[in-house]
Design goal:
Elements: H1 2-35, H2 41-60, H3 72-96, H4 105-135, E1 141-146, H5 150-161, E2 167-173, E3 190-192, H6 197-202
Helix pairs in contact: 1-2, 1-4, 2-3, 3-4
């Protein structure tokens, strides 16, 4: 079961990267078609390069890691920064090789704005869709929280109040045996001591 979940998550992240890589190309082609009947190869090359830069920078800045527990605002900030750096990189290349005059400045600026707007819209729609699915228990992961103290309770509250994250808290583990069987918060019980963690994980 764990292998299936890991494979599904990996497939989802690769699909995420593929959409991000294709978005700059799709946007610049559509923009070019608004002003000319045929898209010049230079726009396609620029789009492909931007897509490669975007996914590389997004990978480096952590856009694709730990996304499940990250806030929407943090995710949008990361992908926006990745795009801005990609766009600036292409602008620098254009000036170095002296081909910037071959591109429409208006189109270039529209591309700068519309691409992140598309990426952000896609992520918002995806987050809302996943949130609805997870509220119904689809794709959720069961978690145990080690420690039923202040920090543990705070974490349990955060996960419970944000079902879109996809985590269901099934209980606490705590070294204090007197807490076993009690319910510190949100009807979530202290199931056992930390030493019994392996038993609960296996079950």
């Amino acid at each position: 079961m764990q292998h299936i979940r890991s494979s599904t998550n990996s497939l989802f992240l690769w699909l995420h990267r593929l959409i991000d890589a294709a978005t700059p190309t799709a946007v610049i082609i559509l923009l070019a078609l608004q002003s000319q009947p045929k898209v010049h190869d230079r726009y396609i090359v620029a789009g492909l390069l931007a897509g490669l830069f975007l996914t590389f920078i997004a990978q480096v800045n952590g856009t694709y890691t730990d996304w499940r527990g990250r806030s929407l605002l943090a995710s949008l900030r990361k992908i926006t920064i990745a795009w801005l750096l990609s766009w600036l990189g292409l602008v620098a290349i254009d000036f170095v090789v002296k081909i910037s005059e071959n591109f429409s400045r208006e189109l270039w600026l529209l591309w700068l704005v519309i691409t992140p707007t598309t990426l952000i819209t896609y992520r918002i729609v995806l987050r809302l869709t996943l949130g609805q699915l997870r509220r119904r228990g689809i794709g959720n992961k069961n978690v145990l929280i080690v420690g039923a103290g202040v920090i543990g309770k705070r974490l349990a509250n955060t996960l419970t109040d944000n079902p879109w994250m996809g985590y269901t808290v099934i209980g606490f583990l705590d070294d204090n045996e007197q807490l076993v069987g009690t319910t510190p918060i949100n009807n979530i019980k202290v199931l056992s001591t930390v030493d019994a963690c392996e038993q609960h994980c296996d079950s």
